[in-house]
Design a protein that fits this description.
single chain; alpha/beta; Arc Repressor Mutant, subunit A; 2 domains; five-stranded parallel β-sheet; 6 helices; 21% strand; elongated
């Protein structure tokens, strides 16, 4: 089962009716720049381009500039196919009236193409080694004493280098939708995580009025803590 995100400018519209017959988890957000900023993480994104192709093309370009790592599939009418080119940055296209078998096949293929070639449980970046099997992490070979949530937070950020996540997004993705605590718990865990990273603290940057990001090039990260 995949986590699917659908961007649509038509509230209440069933963009791909066949999805209701498949077991994937689907979330809808408005197809507008403001919605993209706080978009939840997803395995795959569908962009509803059945109408207003010019605006949807602009939105697809914005998605590319945000460091989109999930495959992007355009949902089109047959007449809209002629307007699609490489500038959209899409992985695939699909007609809105496609059947469930076709939709599921395109989802599987897009996710398979997006998988990293190495399926190792070890993630290494900027002096940090994360072992997803043992739930442990090291900095330059020295083990970090992390709580479970600190580990999950570090793992999530390193899996999305360069992308900025708001407190609400991190709370949703790391703590889960059923967590009822305040978003300030994210700040607390970020602060503790930075302290434990020591000299690598600048890898976790703060972007004013937006949130936090992991930048593998620490020289380009604004390391000071900024309230937003």
């Amino acid at each position: 089962m995949a986590q699917l995100l659908i961007l649509s400018a038509l509230p209440g519209s069933e963009v791909l009716p066949a999805l209701s017959l498949l077991p994937h988890k689907v979330r809808y957000i408005p197809a507008e720049p403001a919605g993209i900023v706080n978009a939840p993480a997803a395995d795959l994104i569908f962009l509803d381009a059945r109408q207003d192709l010019n605006n949807m093309k602009s939105l697809a370009k914005i998605l590319q500039t945000t460091g989109l790592s999930a495959p992007l599939i355009l949902v089109l009418t047959e007449g809209g196919l002629a307007a699609v080119n490489e500038e959209w940055g899409a992985t695939d296209v699909i007609l809105f009236n496609a059947g469930p078998a076709e939709v599921d096949a395109r989802i599987r293929l897009a996710l398979a193409r997006n998988k990293p070639k190495s399926l190792s449980a070890l993630v290494e970046t900027s002096g940090i080694v994360i072992d997803e099997v043992t739930y442990s992490a090291k900095v330059h070979g020295v083990p970090l004493d992390l709580t479970y949530k600190e580990f999950e937070l570090l793992k999530f950020l390193t899996q999305h280098p360069g992308r900025v996540f708001s407190r609400d997004q991190l709370l949703s993705e790391v703590w889960g939708y059923d967590y009822f605590g305040g978003t300030r718990t994210v700040d607390v865990h970020i602060r503790r995580l930075r302290f434990k990273l020591g000299e690598l603290e600048p890898l976790i940057g703060t972007v004013r009025n937006r949130g936090y990001s992991f930048n593998p090039n620490k020289d380009e990260v604004e390391s000071e803590s900024v309230s937003y």
